[in-house]
Protein 1
Amino acid sequence: MKQFLVLAACAAALAACSPKGPAAKGAGEAKFNSDVPMTEFMGHFVDPAAFMYWKNSGTMVDEKGEHDLSPTTDEGWDVLVTGATMLVEAGNVLQLPGRTRAPEADWNKYAQMLSERALIARAAAEKHDKAAVFEQGAKVYEVCVACHEQFVIQPQLKAEGRPKADPLPPIEKK
């Protein structure tokens, strides 16, 4: 009998803690707002994150010679870490309801690859490893190019056909 009373008391306590009524339904459930158009999400979040990483690695050659773009301060390296961290999370956000595109399996594959490769790129930046930062930045770039080919370029070509002229401006010769 004593065990029955203990069980009854526990059940009563649990019932008292349970949410009741329509206000409780849905409380605490995740709700995703994906109202920002994909082009704006890419332009205002993903692209800046990628360029935070890419602009601070490798070398640049100009009329004055070759310049190492790698950071020289802890703050500079932190810019790369921040960019890579944002790309990890961008891969997650791209898989949220309202963000995915058809075919979802391909879309999610690219989003997951972005997160995976950006996490490795982040580790390279944390180690201040110039060569690995450059190599991993290229691997992130490969994912971006492959995804854009499937989800941007090919649909645009299908809808509009091939451009009548070269879309790139001519190279100026000095």
Protein 2
Amino acid sequence: MNDMITVRGFVASEVKSSTTTRGTATATFRLGTTERRYDRTSNTWVDGNTNWYTVQSFRYLAGHVGCSVKKGQRVLVVGKLRLRQWEHEGRVYHVAEIDAESVGHDLMWGSANFTRMNGTSAPADVAHSTDVSAPVGSREWDSDDDEQAPPEDETVAADVEDTDTANPLMVNTTTGELVSA
């Protein structure tokens, strides 16, 4: 089964980073998602069942997950769901794995500071890719191609107005942070 899935939950284990024999970076962690419901009889929120997933990431995403995600944090994961089963000593075991395409912090539970990677440390936007034989997200930034390179100017006036002063806000396009005008 290769269905796309989006899961919101908590990181239940430390991220395990490694490299395959062919040199591909990997990062794996356990993700728990617990159902919450309102119990009208006790007028409280109660926890329901917890679903467990093993989240696997590769290449650039694995490096970013290893540096950014910590045990206990709330995250969103988008990827391909794979259900496997096996038998050991007469018992049948089942596991749900997600081959992650995206992992991010759930901002419902806190704030994050995003740092954009550029140069050869981040994959190119797939929409600009002219090589249809390359796997999704496998191309690197080509510094000779101006159309594909990241913007040179790191601070630009965003098309957003500050509602208090009616002045445009300055945004650092590398980090996404607001810059004082």
Protein 3
Amino acid sequence: MTRQDPDRPQPPGEPPSRADLDREAEEVTLAVMTASRLLVAVSARALASTDGTLTLPQLRALVVLDTCGPVKLAAMAATLGVNPSTALRMVERLESAGLIDRRTNPANRREVILSLTPAGRDLVERVLAHRRTEIRALVQRLPAEARAGLVPALKALTEAAHEMAVDPFDETRRVGGLFDDPLSPAPPDAPQGGRRRPADRAS
């Protein structure tokens, strides 16, 4: 059997080989990872320009609360991928900064319910607005053809993520961590068990 040269150009009209598809997938993977690191850097700059005392994990905790509404401490830990004691220490720091409100679940006094304070919500709004502005400036630097090509590609990537059930807040929903706040009920069209903010909230 003759080995196909992986560097040999594909003849016109011939379907791509497995090696070509693998190479293309690797190139796309590396490009997405690079873009992901860029977005993390943008988020870090947005946070530093708004509040230099907070870390990105702390911002993500605030975004979880902003996106999902009040949640249980255990669900917060699961969503962030940390153990409950680590989540509790983070919550204590954010609470002392006046950004998170912590109270006992009236239905189960062994559970802690977390929600954003007005100051916490304002901080998230300002950080995300700064991030959106910086990303928009980057996009505007692209040629029109490149911008047009990004839209369907990113939409396809997002749709593929939904098909694979890749959602940063899936774990919160899976463990039943969403908590309907009787003082701030979800709107009628919100998913059962809490609010769902626009996709731009995800971090």
Protein 4
Amino acid sequence: MEIFFYIVPTLMIAVASCAVVVVVRRSVRVSRAWNSGLTAEARCLRVYTTTSGGGDSSVHTSLHHVYEFTTRDGRGVRFEEQGGPGTVLEGDIVTVHYPADRPEHATARPPAHGKLAAGTGCLLAFLGTFILFAIGFMAVTYAMFSAVGDFMQP
């Protein structure tokens, strides 16, 4: 029975570790696009929202944009970005930043390196604290079961 006190925190650590990878990859991807120096004019093809939650939990709505642009070498690229501004509508022209080797990793967000670093840092701090809490929980659980085991021994 005590194995559940180790399995559940281990699974939580695994999920949090995957979230760390996702957060770092997203940050690196956006930063590479901004640092590439390549920009293009893109047309917003579609704007839509997705909704999650409801019932007993709060409802969260995310705004998505689908953009299309042409790279400097003439290749057409279409990409989708979540969380863009609500003021960009279908048909609007926006400036996108993209890395030369992966133009599909473009972003229509204006460069804000400090905001990106702060957001990434806060998420990583939260996830790191969560992982440390789970490890601490497992250590306390081990100590408690060890003490009970010693107490139960004649």
